[in-house]
Amino acid sequence: MLRVAVCVSGGGTNLQAILDKIRDGAVTNTEIAVVVSNNPGAYALERARAAHVPAVCVSPKEHASREEFNTALVDTLEQYRVDLVVLAGFLVVIPPVMVERYRNRIINIHPSLIPSFCGTGNYGLKVHENALARGVKVTGATVHFVDEGTDTGPIILQKAVAVEDGDTPEILQRRVMEQAEWEILPEAIDLIANGRIQVKDGRVIRQKG
Ligand code: GAR
Fold first, then answer.
1. Reported pTM
2. Residue pLDDT, tens place only, 20-38
3. 197 neighbors 33 (Cβ within 8 angstroms)
4. Nearest-CA residue for atom 7 of ligand 1
5. What are the helix and strand counts (H, E) for the chain?
6. Which of left, alpha, beta for 96 (phi over 0: left; psi -120 to 50: alpha)?
7. Conformation bin of residue 124: beta by default, left when phi > 0, alpha when psi is -120 to 50
8. Strands 2-8 and 30-37
9. Which atom of ligand 1 is nearest to the CA of 88?
10. Which residues are near ligand 1 (CB < 6 Å)?
11. Which atom of ligand 1 is nearest the CA belonging to 177?
């Protein structure tokens, strides 16, 4: 059984998609060991509690320095003996020590087709504002492993979503979530839990079968 930590900062709709797909058997061999938030007010923590999953807040405000916060974050993951860390709308820069400790065992969902509209400053609604400002006709979402860069790690899955006339950032964000994020993030977890992917030379290789 793959022990997963889901790290969240906000509403937690991606967390909900994972919980639902584990419950329905679409994601197998997986248990959510803990949900971690940097934000005590994150609705995602409520979702975790409702699903009887341990919900922990590790807030930078409760630590004297960034180093202490980073240590507390890694300590929490160690305490729950997690095999995989899933960043599901976690608006925290992942410390290098955590990337090193969990090499190719941290995944992130990003609401665009990387390498478009990603990197520092491209998160949440801003990604969709930037996509609409550029006038792209197709956008989507990406699940990737986390390395030392911002949105630069090996890509696991991507799904395209059409941009439609009259879209607002909010409308487009919702469509990308419904049609892409809530599908590919649970699917990536299922693939990892069942030993179906490997990272080789910085690229993800998917096993057949
Ligand atoms: C999602 O759209 C996720 O892709 C995005 O934050 C949202 C969280 O929503 N993440 C990023 O932009 C990371 N760069 P949720 O809390 O409802 O899952």
1. 0.97
2. 999 999 999 999 999 999 9
3. no
4. 89
5. 7, 9
6. alpha
7. left
8. parallel
9. 18
10. 8, 10-14, 44, 88-89, 109-111, 123-124, 127, 177, 181
11. 2
